[in-house]
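Lab notebook, bench 4. Still working through the backlog of constructs that have no structural model yet. Next entry is a single chain of 301 residues. Request: give me the structure tokens for it.
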Amino acid sequence: MDNLPFNSRIKDMQILERPRERLARMGAGVLSTAELLAILLRVGVEGENAIQVGQRLLQEFNGLAGLQRASYTEICAQHGIGEAKAAQIKAAIDLGRRLASQSSCDRPVVHSPEDAADLVQYEMSALDQEQLRVILLNTRNHVLGVKTIYQGSLNSSQVRIGELFRPAIRENAAAIIIIHNHPSGDPSPSPDDVAITKAIIDAGKLLDIQVLDHLIIGANKFISLNRRGLGFDGGGEMEIIQEVHDKRRVVAVSKPLPKLLQDLYKVQKETAEEVKCAIDKQGTVVATTLDIKPQKREQGK
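Model written out:
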């Protein structure tokens, strides 16, 4: 499908192999990115069919992330892409971004670093400048909003800690998660990243606002500083007791396994019938599931 004969037309393909028909039969997941673009473009240009135009756009802008970063004017300037097609492409990409981030009114719940990263990773991994954002959470870890605090090169001397907490105080948030991106694509934390994290945690304690994590977004991957124990005392954990009365799935991150199991045993006697832990290849606890007793779930409502 990726190497169509030059000058071939989509209408010359077998009906069941055409992008639109394949989408209808099998779903969008089986189509390549170029084929999805072809459905938006509908027709090609002289010498290229719509799929080949889509392939050219992806090559010109270094993939879908580059196409997301490209301006409307830059896309319009491509051969065979007029204003209408450029608008369709930008609209489709932004719809995907909005779906990935979800609006605050949907009130997604953050149980883990993965849940937090899912809110912003699609957009932030494509940014060509550093941004620092704060996810605001209530006492049940429902998302109250995602606020952009800084944009540009970040280091510990430039970031004003008070600015980070201003939205949390305004929204009466109980907890926050800090997220920033590395445009290089490498999410490895720098000494400044760790220093900022420690300063934020200390300020949060004074303000009675819990700092659950600091995530660094790279190219299609992220790192949790909490999970790695960087800046967090002893490798912190997301609050276990906080969610026990109304959630069946509670995640703890990077707590030393013996101490985690000891704490979970105390929780289990009072509230849970069964506790399960998932541990990765490095021995890090990445998920803890509590099967809560029915009467406790009722009390938590």
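Notes after review: The longest helix spans residues 83-101. The longest strand covers residues 143-151. Flag for follow-up if needed.
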